[in-house]
Design goal:
By secondary structure, this protein is α/β, with parallel strands linked by helices. It has a domain of about 190 residues: Dihydropteroate synthase-like (TIM Barrel, Alpha-Beta Barrel), CATH 3.20.20. It is built from eleven helices and ten strands. The strands form two sheets. It has an eight-stranded parallel beta sheet with strand order 8-7-6-5-4-3-10-9. Strands 1-2 form a two-stranded antiparallel sheet. Strand 7, helix 6 and strand 8 form a beta-alpha-beta unit. The radius of gyration is 17 Å and the shape is globular. Bound molecules: 9-methylguanine.
Length: about 280
Amino acid sequence: MNLLRPLRRLRCGRFSLALDRPLVMGVVNVTPDSFSDDGRHGTVEAAIAHAHRLIADGADLIDIGGESTRPGATPVAPDEEIARVAPVLDALRDCGVPLSVDTRHPATMRAAIAHGADMINDVAALRAPGAVDALRDADCAVCLMHMQGVPATMQQAPVYDEVVSEVEHFLGERIAALQAAGVARERIVVDPGIGFGKTLRHNLLLLGALDELVAAGQPVLVGVSRKSMLGELTGRPAGQRLAGSLAAMLAAVARGAAIVRVHDVAESRDALRVWLAIDGAT
Ligand code: 9MG
């Protein structure tokens, strides 16, 4: 990757986000298994209520997803994904924080932008045909994430010769492709994709070398919250991984992560407040 001056602000739809402290992105899943057995309406209502709670807890951004990208997850058709995400965007439009939509489908990206999304978070880094065109002329930010394979099978046998340089090279190429298509670098965030086609060792190497990716100049987003690597390290199920999530988040922030994607916003804000106070005192 070429080394560029670090961005101080991110263009993010209706917002211009200062990058002078780590930003907390709260996760809102609009997937039936996440909240309710009350059909789509109940799921949407629960997602909106959850987003308001995360904002009250101090979320700087909200990431709304209508398709699970967990290992082994079944894909969701764009029509269904849009039907889940659009009412949540409409309801949160004036909530005061940027709204990101987690999707790999160009049709969903277009619909999300039409419904006011300020960021597209794509675990496939806009590789789907038509994905770059879907947001090129908008003003939304975009998160380009590295993933080896596809969610349904990505954890079966991840292989790299040298994971850190391969991920950096991939992200560098995706940034170049977006810039060649006319997307300003002030709109682009990158993400090493912890847990997406990676073993525990790959994840640890990537997190340990995160400062290399940060040095390349684009803001780096990291998601470690409740992930299976924490289960592998602690032996705990997803619901008991808060301490591990906070430790991994702080390790990422210490290496320069600009945005952390988390489920537990209040606890993450507290951990960051303490870490930043110590960091600022020295
Ligand atoms: C949707 N999603 C789940 N995990 C993620 C991660 O680590 N990064 C990004 N950008 N999106 C994620």
